[in-house]
Amino acid sequence: MIEILLFATIKAGTPILFATLGAIVMERSGIINLGIEGLMLIGALSGFVTALYTGSLFLAVVVSFFASMAVGSIHGIITVYLRGNQIVSGLSLTMFGIGLTALFGRGMVGKTISGFDKFHIPGLSKIPVIGPALFRHDLLVYLSVLIVVLVSLFFYKTKWGLYLRSVGENPAAADTSGINVLKYRMMAVLVGSGLAGLGGCYLSLAYTPFWMENMSAGRGWIAVALVIFAQWNSTRALAGAYLFGGINALQLRMQAVGTTISPHLLAMLPYIFTIIVLIIATMRLEKGSSPEPESLGLPYDREDRK
Predict the structure, then answer these.
(1) I need a surface site. Which of 32, 35, 67, 111 has the fewest CB within 10 A?
(2) Is 170 helix (H, G, I), strand (E, B) or coil?
(3) pTM exceeds 0.85 for this model
(4) Virtual CA dihedral for 295, 91, 272, 6, nearest 10 degrees?
(5) Alpha helical stretches, state H, the chain
(6) How many domains does the chain have?
(7) Residue 16: CA atoms inside 13 Å, Cβ hemisphere, count?
(8) How many Cα atoms within 13 Å fall on the side-chain side of residue 166?
(9) CA dihedral angle for residue 60, residue 62, residue 65, residue 67, rounded to 10 degrees
(10) Confidence (pLDDT) at 135
(11) How does pLDDT run across 45-58, given as a tens digit for each residue?
(12) CATH assignment at residue 206
């Protein structure tokens, strides 16, 4: 029972983890993107269509990343170069993604593909209880953990990560130091959008290898909230994503065993938990020093420097 639940927790938390990492990268540069839900759907559909017609899962992942990156560039141009409202642009991106995938995905409903197979890590996968639960997943799960490490190393061990964080904290000072603020913000939006697309790609290629309309089911909004819970830290995002994945896995397990609790109430559990965690995290941020980027959500114009 524990082994099955732990396995399901990691599987359910992986798409949220990809999306959260993408949001963290963008917000570290000072750009809020509420279009994560739409980007996940773009990644899910583009990856599924590619796998369906080419049979290549690797190509599907690549196409998913770049398709989401291309759509995310719209948000980048509006918010970075045109200095548009980041909240409005992000919400528009979500509606655009939902509508676009509903339109072009109609013919894909009901079709299935051969998704990612499980990859057993030699030796580790044979450890009792935790071995099958932690080391018998598909390659995208391992990729998500690797990206957590890479993002952390990028932010705190490279000069480019330092530049990106400085752009999110004080873009005027960064600009004065010779850092191209607009370039770093745009690159953050592109990479972050691509990572969010991988979250959707995981849904259609590994989690449930078929297409259904709006298959992200609000996971993009959970990722947006999880950024605050994780305090803009990629390693905390890993724990947070698996926490939410565990809640989701638990409610599915409870439905499977035939509990008397209403299935509608059980389906609400991850979102109720999201609200509770968001409230607690916000209260904690108000009491202490906030790790939130100082210029988060604020457009930058060199002419406004003082």
Answers:
(1) 111
(2) coil
(3) yes
(4) -80
(5) 2-28, 36-54, 57-76, 86-104, 130-134, 139-157, 159-169, 171-176, 181-202, 219-229, 234-256, 263-287
(6) 1
(7) 33
(8) 16
(9) -70
(10) 86
(11) 999 999 999 999 99
(12) 1.10.3470
Backbone torsion region of residue 297, taken as left when φ is above 0, otherwise alpha when ψ lies between -120 and 50, otherwise beta: left
- Can you say whether the dihedral through the CA atoms of 130, 131, 132, 137 is positive or negative? positive
Q: Are residues 220 and 83 in contact, defined by beta-carbon separation less than 8 angstroms? A: no
Residue count of the chain, please give it.
306
Express each pLDDT in 265-306 by its tens digit.
767 777 787 788 778 777 776 665 678 899 999 998 877 655
Extract the tokens encoding 265: 């109430």
Inter-residue contact 172 to 124 (CB < 8 Å): no
In this prediction, the residues of the chain whose per-residue pLDDT falls under 70 are: 1, 255-260, 263, 266, 285-289, 304-306
Tokens linked to 153: 């190393």
Three-class DSSP category at 1: coil
pLDDT at 119: 85
Residue 306 in domain: no
Q: What is the span of the domain harbouring residue 131?
A: 2-301
Amino acid at 187: M
Q: What does the alpha-carbon distance between residue 97 and residue 62 come to, in Å, rounded to a whole number?
A: 18
Place of tokens 């980048």: 76
